[in-house]
Amino acid sequence: MEKMNKEYPVFSNWKFVFHEMYSLDHKYPWYIAIRSVAGFLAPFIAAIIPSVAISLVEKRADFLTFFGIMLVFVLGNMIIGIISAKYDFLIKKKNYKVQFQSVQKKVISKIMTVDYQILESVEGKRLADGAKYSYCVEWNGWSRIMDMFTPFAFNLLGIIVYTIILIPRCPWVLPVFAIMSIMNVMIERKIALKGYRKYRETIWETDSRVEYFFQRSTSATDGKDIRLYRMEKWFVDVMNTLVQRRMKVWKRVEMYYFLPHLSDTIWSFVRDIIAYTVLVTQFLAGELNATTFTFYLGIITGFAGWLNGGNMGDGFVRANSEMIRCNWGINDYRSFMDLPDSKHNTDKENQERKADQEETSKTLYQKNDTDQEEISKTIYPQDGTDQTEKGVTLEFKNVCFRYPGAEHDVIHNLNLKVKAGENIALVGVNGAGKTTLVKLLCGFYHPNKGQILINGREISDYPETEYRKLVGAVFQDMMVMATSVAENIACEKQEDIDEQKLRQAMRLADIEEKICSLPRKEKTSVTNFLDKDGVSFSGGELQRILLARALYKDAPLLLLDEPTSALDPLAETAVYEQYHRLSQGKTTIFISHRLASTKFCNRIIYYENGQVKEDGTHDELMKENGAYARMFEIQSQYYNEKGGDSDE
Ligand SMILES: Nc1ncnc2c1ncn2[C@@H]1O[C@H](COP(=O)(O)OP(=O)(O)OP(=O)(O)O)[C@@H](O)[C@H]1O
């Protein structure tokens, strides 16, 4: 796989950030320009005031003239101060907009659409975290780079203007100062980039681990085990070690930023000594009067301020090295945004292929039985939807799948055909690859070899939105949000929910009565995480809510990965019966370790080492007396013995 974490050229990142700012508000460059001119004028006026005062004294100006001119300067400085404060506020406000209205929105959308397999990988998770940090911390990424644009601009303006002022007095100053400054900036850039490359991964690793341990320690779910097993010492020790490691790295990183400042101070010292020597020599030789001498003295002193700071905040060196350092965040953001989305076609690509696909699928289905012919009519229905009342057909053709970095295939040369409307029970030992198969069907993973066809069409050929409509699933790990029951079921905002459909889904999932008994009914929050009146539902109730979610979606392909593991036996039987009714007209794949559930399915697939080992109805497989029959007998024997014990 191509390296995910890319490093973009520094200038390209600055251009990228500036472009984002500009596209959000075309007035942005003006704000920065006005603020930069104000940032330049304030120290410039302060630098020339002494020479103006001396000049007035030399000319023996009267009190009113002296006072009037000084007042103009003081008022000028005050107005500049007000303009600076106003534009600082405007720029900061716009920066927040870029961070939280534009960048945050893009990162959140990307997290939800990026290819699932990538998101699940260590590097993918790390980049997603990096992209989040790039906009939500003040000291890195977007925020800091945007804050630094203004000091960068007004300090640069100061350096240019002061150099031009100094040229007539000392013509050699330009080449000498230019060479010194360019060398300085290059050294500083090299050092800053070295520090960034050397410590970036360690910083990320320690920060993310500290964050992980902190989050787990604040979770109420984890809190039970933490207290029961006295994990607090272990947690604190781990966090202490991480924090110490982070402090060490932090010191080293700061050293990398201290070095450019040190080098700059030395350059400035040399530069100032030369400039002062020339100035004093010219003054003593009578080439300069007191006014001009004072003026140039102010300019030379101010020059160091533009470079090293002091003239209204950070100097050019600091702004430049901060903007280099903050590339960390922008690199993370851009690398993350460049990751591919799910490997589905876009709507446009799909339309272009549609004609071709229709032709192929017709030929394909003509070869199959009459049932398939019926189904082919529903592949590309005239109303533009792929929803079908008969479910969808599935076909795995020589499918191989291996997790990245794994030594063996989890699924190996799998060949399996499922007719529209069939209810399949997928059975097998732990780790056989059942959940992996469901995730492949959901399009989260992609086969390394072979094809998965839904209604004769490869999954990746469907546009993302169209494909998602085809599949409803309930997974083992329960994903519920701390919002209302209704929103959890409909996965939409309250006002967009179809009330009737919601009620029906809750009824079919056998949770309506419980929800309606609560004071706020379906508006009750799931958990009290965000709402003090929220309700903590039991595992079984949550599974029913998730089932209602799959039913509300009403997709023609229903994938149920142990959806009843948290239900009591009575509730489970009731749910099975409901499933049986609900799954009529849908293609269903049902994974369960409780083999009693398989009797509701019209076909059972015993799955082992990523391949179909046995395939048939319950009676057929029992007759075959293979792995399924053994598993079934062991389980029923266990229940019988249990039953026997209790009878005694
Ligand atoms: N993200 C992953 N990366 C690497 N290996 C994985 C990943 N997810 C699962 N596996 C491995 O793939 C194999 C199949 O896992 P899968 O979850 O599909 O099995 P299963 O049949 O659903 O198991 P169970 O019945 O216990 O739920 C297991 O050996 C598991 O360790």
From TrEMBL:
SUPFAM superfamilies: ABC transporter transmembrane region, P-loop containing nucleoside triphosphate hydrolases. PROSITE patterns: ABC_TRANSPORTER_1 (PS00211), ABC_TRANSPORTER_2 (PS50893). GO terms for molecular function: ATP binding. It comes from the Bacteria. The chain crosses the membrane at residues 37-57, 63-85, 148-165. The lineage of its organism: Bacteria, Bacillati, Bacillota, Clostridia, Lachnospirales. Residues 341-368 are annotated as: Disordered. Residues 341-361 have a biased composition (Basic and acidic residues). It is a multi-pass membrane protein. Residues 394-634 form the ABC transporter domain. Keywords: ATP-binding, Membrane, Nucleotide-binding, Transmembrane, Transmembrane helix. Signal peptide: none annotated. It is found in: Cell membrane. This is ABC transporter ATP-binding protein. InterPro entries: AAA+_ATPase, ABC1_TM_sf, ABC_transporter-like_ATP-bd, ABC_transporter-like_CS, P-loop_NTPase, Type_1_exporter. Gene3D superfamilies: ABC transporter type 1, transmembrane domain (1.20.1560.10), P-loop containing nucleotide triphosphate hydrolases (3.40.50.300).
